[in-house]
Design goal:
Its EC number is 2.6.1.62. InterPro entries: Aminotrans_3, Aminotrans_3_PPA_site, PyrdxlP-dep_Trfase, PyrdxlP-dep_Trfase_major, PyrdxlP-dep_Trfase_small. The protein has 452 residues and is of the alpha/beta class. It has 15 helices and 15 strands. The strands form three sheets. Strands 4-10-9-8-7-5-6 form a seven-stranded mixed beta sheet, sandwiched between helices. A four-stranded mixed beta sheet has the order 1-2-3-13. Strands 11-12-15-14 form a four-stranded antiparallel beta sheet, covered by helices on one side. The chain is globular and about 65 Å long. Bound molecules: pyridoxal-5'-phosphate. Pyridoxal-5'-phosphate binds next to helix 6.
Length: 452
């Protein structure tokens, strides 16, 4: 164990198993104990200050430390800290939030099923898809198609639907008999000379071929993040998702948009599927920005058409103790009110333009192979050779090196293999954006210098 950990970090190191942790690194380095947050800023237990370019974990959309959020949470905790929403009970914040989400969601997505976070929203959407297909007389439609490099969460079903490099380990099992994957839209690594339109055509053709191979009559749904976030901020060609959705419609396959990251303003819209990428899904899974991380909550928002087909003299046997938790719903309602009152979607669009422009100024650095993103989600991909796009060997762990160099300079960016990814709070100021860009540039340079 390390000697110079604070008492809290030492206690954590002695007793905690963190999510998605690396045993050896944790046992040698311990964890940073964060104690305070305000806007995009964090402080640790030694009083060190960091600019949080990660936005928690793609989630602190309205920024940390808001007194009005704390008040809304406290008020609801005092008034009614808990009721379940099982069967025929509900509470005022859950009812109001369902109505508000129906108002914000596109098309006829007017029905809301609350969950505890993103993974449970994905699990629930999977069940809903099977349920509605069966109700429509297609009980054989139990399979799903998703994309490689997607991350849909960490429960058994969500981990099986996602398929990122390195996530799958031999110690765990994954559901594979009914889950299929097609290629992700990876513009940076497309074949030499291939246009975006040709890439889209190839991906759509691969999707059609996969549907034919599995059999459309077996497929319930297609899961897709509008931008594959944890898979490496994969920004698709503009018409790719609408075309994939059109293929789904043709084959009776439901379209499930995983907007856990892209929802609630990250791309300058409430939801990216319709407003940014021009398709209306049958279901939207959301979490994270729904409460800006102030409370754990998720939801599946689905269409009236699905509801009409699934209703009847029967049970829907799925849900969680904390589905529709009144304090979490009160936090989400306040969060949405703040986004509306402070015009945060428009602010995100404006800040996002500056952020993207700033990040692109890093393209000239010798190891920055690609800079990509949309509005307030972005990443740099570090490569060993820019001309050939040759990757660094895994053991170089370049993303982590850059993250460490950034952390030493008071900036938090997330390593993802060779990438460094960012999704700052949407209320970020122009000078804070400049600070991210300059510090990240300095960190990449320091990490590069360290290699020689
Ligand atoms: N879907 C996407 C796109 C995500 O990025 C995540 C988490 O990062 C999830 C689902 C899972 O959400 P949660 O960790 O709240 O279960």
């Amino acid at each position: 164990m390390t000697q110079d950990l604070s008492p809290l970090a030492a206690m954590d190191q002695a007793h905690a198993l963190h999510p998605w942790t690396h045993f050896d690194s944790f046992e040698t380095e311990g964890a940073v104990v964060l104690t305070r947050g305000e806007g995009v800023w964090l402080w640790d237990d030694a009083g060190r200050k960091y600019l949080d370019a990660v936005g928690g974990l793609w989630c602190t959309n309205i920024g940390l430390g808001r007194a009005d959020m704390a008040q809304a949470i406290a008020d609801q905790a005092l008034k009614l800290a808990f009721t379940s929403t099982f069967v025929d009970i509900t509470n005022a914040p859950a009812a109001r939030l369902a109505g508000k989400l129906a108002e914000l969601a596109p098309g006829d997505l007017n029905r809301v099923h609350f969950t505890t976070g993103g993974s449970t929203a994905i699990d629930s959407a999977y069940r809903l898809a099977q349920y509605v297909q069966a109700a429509r007389g297609f009980s054989g439609r139990t399979h799903v198609i998703a994309r490689k490099q997607s991350y849909h969460g960490s429960t058994y079903a969500a981990m099986s639907i996602g398929l990122r490099d390195g996530d799958r380990v031999p110690e765990f099992t994954y559901k594979s008999d009914t889950i299929h994957h097609v290629s992700a839209p990876i513009l940076y690594r497309r074949a030499e000379g291939q246009t975006e339109a040709q890439l889209t055509d190839a991906l759509v053709a691969e999707f059609e071929a996969k549907i034919a191979e599995v059999g459309a009559e077996k497929i319930a749904a297609f899961f897709a993040e509008p931008i594959q976030a944890s898979g490496g901020v994969l920004v698709p060609p503009q018409d790719y998702l609408a075309r994939m959705a059109a293929v789904c419609r043709k084959h009776g396959i439901l379209v499930i948009a995983d907007e856990v990251v892209t929802g609630f303003g990250r791309l300058g819209a409430w939801f990216a599927s319709q407003d940014v990428y021009g398709f209306t899904p049958d279901m939207i899974c959301c979490a994270k920005g729904l409460s800006s991380g102030y409370q754990p909550i998720g939801a599946v928002i689905f269409s009236d058409a699905l509801w009409d087909d699934m209703r009847g003299d029967k049970w829907f046997t799925s849900g969680y103790t904390y589905s529709g938790h009144p304090v979490a719903c009160a936090a989400a309602l306040k969060n949405i009110e703040i986004i509306e009152n402070e015009d945060i979607l428009a602010r995100a669009t404006r800040a996002g333009a500056l952020f993207q422009e700033g990040l692109r100024s890093l393209s000239d650095l010798p190891i920055v192979g690609d800079v990509r993103g949309h509005t307030l989600i972005g990443c740099v991909e570090n490569v060993a050779d820019k001309a050939t796009k040759r990757a660094f060997p895994d053991e170089v762990d370049i993303g982590r090196r850059v993250t460490h160099a950034a952390e030493a300079r008071g900036l938090m960016v997330r390593p993802l293999g060779a990438l460094n990814v960012m999704s700052p709070a949407l209320i970020i100021s122009d000078s804070e954006i400049t600070q991210i860009v300059e510090t990240l540039g300095a960190a990449i340079t320091a990490a590069t210098d360290d290699l020689v």
